[in-house]
């Protein structure tokens, strides 16, 4: 039997995306967003949703470019901080000591210390309600060169991405591998 | 130092959403989508992206309603199967033995055996490219009544949601809790 919890966005997992932009004076900013995900394979696109009140919203509307940076577990403090404080008030790169690197492909910085950086150009802006959704077309995906690949697949166990749980607002690690996709399902039918 | 992998949607984690719809004869269908995520808090909305070739695409365009069902780890076979086979060819509920329950709020079924069911009405349809994005407004979130809550927060360790890794296409479990959000970040600044 089921119980009703009301109209809540109660889905798991949500990602921990650190979104980096430049403001109109060229200052780098970083904010954390868990509302987002991949939204198209061709062109390769990722969506992130932000409130209009954020500093990043204004930067995105102006620059039409951003990067998505995936923090590893050992940057959970920085990821959480980026989501708590506004770039209107603080220089978040100075406070954390993390390094913004100017992308050569889009007008946005990425975070040197994070294992994955995705460089995006804004393709669509969709007003939904409290949040505005930005659909970014991926120009390039970069990973730390210390991360070994299996075939051409980066190894998630080395990336150690964070998972965010809505409602409880806790961060989790990636757990054990359970099964191979597009494979275990063949046991049915 | 970073190495470039090209224009890929290389972000972790992605969810395992099982999307349920009715076709125009009232037959229930289920498909698995990893391209999606929360996109707005108010109204509460979740986005899922599907290829036009899927059976679910036609159902969604017709019914403007769907449910998102979160499988627990022990349903990884069914979740994978739902993503491999088209509802045009097979009755996936019959094959898996899972139980479709008619939602009282939207014109779509949900899966009785899965721990979380989110009932949605289609609010926006956004053509991006290979994938079309459906933004669904959440009408209700239901959880299995055996899942305990801490305060009003369902306990993710009991839900045991799946995580999907793009590129390698492996399924993972949720790992250990690392930190409390909107808390650990206060250690900075």
Please render the helix and strand layout as text:
2 copies of one chain form a homodimer.
Chain A: E1 2-4, E2 14-15, E3 17-22, E4 28-33, E5 36-40, E6 45-51, H1 55-63, E7 65-70, H2 76-84, H3 92-96, E8 100-102, E9 109-111, E10 116-127, E11 131-144, E12 149-150, E13 153-154, H4 156-159, E14 162-165, E15 170-180
Antiparallel strand pairs in A: 2-14, 3-4, 3-7, 5-6, 6-11, 7-10, 8-9, 10-11, 12-13, 14-15
β-strand number of chain A: 15
H/E element order of chain A:
EEEEEEHEHHEEEEEEHEE
How many distinct helices of chain A? 4
Q: Which range does the strand content of chain A fall in?
A: over 45%
Classify the secondary structure makeup of chain A into a structural class: mainly beta
Q: Which chains share the greatest interface?
A: A-B, 105 and 105 residues
What does the overall shape of chain A look like?
globular
Roughly how many Å apart are the termini of chain A? 27 Å
Task: Using the CA coordinates, give the radius of gyration of chain A.
Answer: 17 Å
Quick check: average pLDDT of chain A?
96
Order the strands across the largest sheet of chain A as they lie in space: 4-3-7-10-11-6-5
Largest sheet of chain A: 7 strands, antiparallel
Q: What portion of residues of chain A is helical? A: 10-25%
List low-confidence stretches of chain A: none
Q: Determine the oligomeric state from the structure.
A: homodimer
